[in-house]
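#data-curation
PF: Archiving a pair of folding outputs for the training set. Convention for this channel: one message per protein, sequence first, structure tokens after, nothing in between. First:
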Amino acid sequence: MLRILWIGLLALVLTACTNQPPAPPPPGNGVISGTVRISLQTTLPPADLSAPFVEGELIVQFKPQVSLQSLGRLSAAGVELEQVRPLSLERTFLYRAGLSRAETLAVLAELQRRNDVAFAHPNYRLFGQATPNDPLYADQRWHYEAIRLPQAWDLETGSSNPVTVAVIDGGVVAGHPDLAGKLLPGYDFYSDAASSGDGDGRDSNPEDTAPGSDYHGNHVTGTVAAATNNNLGVAGVAWGARLLPVRALSGGSGTLADVADALRWAAGLSVAGVPANPNPAKVINMSLGGPVACTNAPALQQAINEASNAGAIIVVAAGNSNVDASTFSPAGCSGVVTVGATNAAGSRASYSNYGSRIDLMAPGGEPDGQQVVSTLASGQYGGKAGTSMAAPHVAGVLALMKSKKPTLTAAEAISLLKETAKPLDATQCNQPSGSECGAGLLDARAALERLNTPPPRSLVLSASPNALSLNTGQSAQVTLSIARTNFTEAVALSVTGQPAGTTPSFNPPSPVAGNSTTLTIPAGSTPGTYTLVVRGSASVGGQTVEAETRITLSVQQPPTTPPPAQNIQNTRIYFDAVLRETPTLSLLLDFNPIAITQTGTQAPYTRTGLSTSGLVGYRVSAWKDVNNNGIQDEGDLFGWYRTNGNIAHVMPDASNIDIVLEPILSTTLTREKWLRQMGYPAR
């Protein structure tokens, strides 16, 4: 052990006994400066109190700085929640306690006030989007001819380059003769053994075992790719497609937690405790949903983002409540193809959701009229109506397109489908404008024909995150991705819908030549909920290519008077020098921190006399000992300097090294915890 006096730092050098410690860095004139401030707690978006959810179950994602080692149990509002399992989303867990609906919401409210929580919401229930019906119909001609599918089969049957299509639903009837030889090994993600019908939770058998099943999942599966031209039963849209059955519903419903894991697995992403999927799907159909806005279900949006980034095209049902599809999930989420339903007359079905979030329409039938006919129980067939029946028409056509052109990108495919769709007018859509039915009715033949021509120019914008919650006076940054097809010109960007008196900005500024830009959004001074519309356009060879994406911004008024603990005075700022990270960590610990003397909620600081060489960098942290016990524990305030959520090294001469103090919770990785984990004394 070696003690040295070094430029105002009483520093301790410790390394493993088998390694010589590096020499202390030479004295220097380096400076690190910035601001330390106390975070005024931001309220997270409220739960959708009208949406159905599992009583006593909550999905919680923690912030990056949280230590995950102590999260087996979570206390909130006097209730101890037990961790059921981690979700496949990073730092996200499902918790459970024996609570009523009101008690669940009370616990949720406290979790949403915690500084270590990125988001928390109920485990919403999602449902198969089929309208109940009685009569069965054996004729499929009306719904296939409506989208010119027989003519499309003259160009492609899905056999040229077979595409894997995942169906996330209520499971499959593997013994159905019209699915023989079509099914890949799937998985059962439905975790409630009591209602699963198979006596257990998750397993490798996606068979539909729900008591009294209506075979919703098998009906959807058959529409996508039932065996065709085999003198048996019905025809599927994509004859040659391979089917990946993924069970996440039972008896017509399931939970968001199970669906999110099922979606990631179907796309080939890892899920804890589940074997890897050897057949990642290029197209995923989700004929399911629930009456909760996607902004209230960030776990689902995050799973969609990750599955899309893995290369999957996700097709979802719009919902069957004759309301705006943006009030449903996943229909209202970004990054999915949202499909509404038409009837045999070519008009919007009486039940189909509508609105700006609709991308396409496809045949879904009417409960008391002509229905979509497909596979049911083993050897049985029948009709169903709903947006659940419309979505697999689109998923099947996407499989035909990717079979004919394997290099087809998601952006290009969606653009083609929209460009070749047959628009519905206001009367057919039964809305003030036909645009409430998206681009119109799917045209399979036209979409496949367009594949023979050069790719159309198209533009897709996507925002991450697409929902923000800020206090007045704050600002946040959003990454805006720009996907071009068949052009390279710069894209001019604009924003509307922001709070009055604010001016969002892009970096790099508009027009943007690259594939992304950072959008800074100020919250302004007026609380409320705002929908920001980001529009992009490019002029290419005399043609204007356009796209838009939307961001939901919730602005709250922060507390006007900070609590007594929210006084920056007596905060100490530490500069721990990292001399070496490998093969063993070697530190010079700071035992002479800066002390803040100012009052208020923020203060500047400057540290001088720092070495500028011979080290990896400095870890900068700040601590206010609110309870005056000399220990970094609950009740105190603490913060690290971070970049992108991760603790960062800083080299002199660095400025604007800003640190945010937040209440210490049991999950907080404090400086003392970090040093103990490394085997160093904390003081």
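PF: Second:
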Amino acid sequence: MSMEIRQTWEKYIHENKLDPSKIDKVISDSWKLSKKFKVNPNQGVGNRILTTSDFQEKLRNNETLISLAKRSMDRFRILFKNMDFILVLTDAEGYILWQSGNERLRETAREIGFWEGSQWTESVVGTNAIGVALRTKEANIIHGYEHFAKASQRWSCVSSPIFGEDGQVKGVVDLSMPAHYPKEFDFLVRVQLIADYISEALQRKAYEDQKYMLQYYSSKKQPGILCDSSMTILHISTELINEPESYLGKKLNDIKTTDWLIGIQEPIWKEDACIGYFVHGLKQRVADKTFVFPYVAGRSKTYHELLEEVKIVAPTSAPIHLFGETGTGKEVLANTIHVNSPFSEGKLVSVNCGSIPDNLMESELFGYEKGAFTGANANGYQGKIEQANNGTLFLDEIEDMPASMQSDLLRVLQEKKLTRIGGNQEIQVNFRLITASNQDLKTLVINGEFREDLFYRVYVCPLHIPPLRERKEDIRELIKSYEDANAWYPFWEKELIEVAEQNQWNGNIRELNNFLERCHVYYRERTPTREQLIQLIHKGGLILQHPETSSEDINFKEQIEKEQIMNALIQNNGNIPLSAKQLSMSKSTLYRKITKYRLN
């Protein structure tokens, strides 16, 4: 039978001919999809792998699922006695969250990218049991040459979907074995048993968590919105809206309404896990007169003076420019201004100008019509400026915007119109503009690095955000906020605060939060010494090298950029095109930066 499947596969791959009588319809449908997704049948290894930070976030978001999978392995281990196997758990997007089983097989599987953090769907690796289970929402067996890609044809895999309380697929259980194991229905039954066990436990926990959250909600004495951990709305106070039923089951961030204003999101904890949120809500007519700042303000005079300025400028439509070192919280203030502005009913659209390659900046901001250029989205693209219509456009690191784009942006600000790439129709736009930079725009204008006419358009209400070292009184509040958010209250908090208050925090609040997360990981159940806390700060801190550049008085962000450019040039032996590609910038921009930092 396997030889017949192999011949059928080879005929389809090389001649594009497929006899439906020779193969199961589920397999033939998947082979066709694999070709449509342009999966290479001679490779098909897992090459879409999460970064460490993204994988850790996946693990946090799926803690319950992983815990239940581990428990099921202990419960049903007898089913796989004397077998060589790998038991795998994925999330609803096909990313592998957890593996168990034969260590030698796991190492073999790693050679084809079948490993934790890797995505295993039909669009990435072709026909496979996990991808088919996600698409069909049914259990299946994919054996040997039934896999589309050669990389998987040495395996026999059995998968079954896991369902949540809403009937949606939450993940997949997969049993992978060497292909010499026969394709037996008995294996399917065993895997379905595990998936059903996890599904039932998942649904039971969801019911218990919702019951717990409703009890928590009923104990609150103010109007609010009850959401689960994914910010799906479960309940809304009738004080906020007359017909709350129409909003149930929708994501909070997708709701656009004039009836209420979203305030602080208060986490609901159960057994050291955040299971949902009580979102404080304000009636819009009250909120119109009330300044909302759902973050940690601290006690420092300098930051409260800044907030007083924000209170004055936010209710207007005037352009605002935020400047300060990296990590000081420019995004927080941008969101605060948007929420308290006349444009709060629209979207806040954020663009980091420093992270977009020069050649993509125009299409990202202005959008394009379908067929505008090779590789363009077939349906066209609505640019960020158009997306921000009747809302707020936040342009972070505006100092990195190319000169040609500065001219185009100025025209939009003057005429309140734009034209998509490849189009000829002028589109009216109206939005609140907030810009931000890590450098002083005045100096950049004087040095000819930023257009003077655009400067006067964006620099109407400048707000300077003080670095954390200038408001150390706030460190205590920021630490307590982190502790509350993570339900972590170390009895050695006094030493933690003292050590934190003595550090410079060149990376500001971002670096402080980074350090607190390390503390939480390393000393969740242990007590560190003062020296260990200091070492933990240095462990994640950035020690700046190359003292010869100190006389140039470059800021923290520029120092990091300089080191990134130096590293890229060293790695590529001075090759400018390769270095520019690695740094996601144009060659002209790289030449300019090399001159700026005297790296010639």
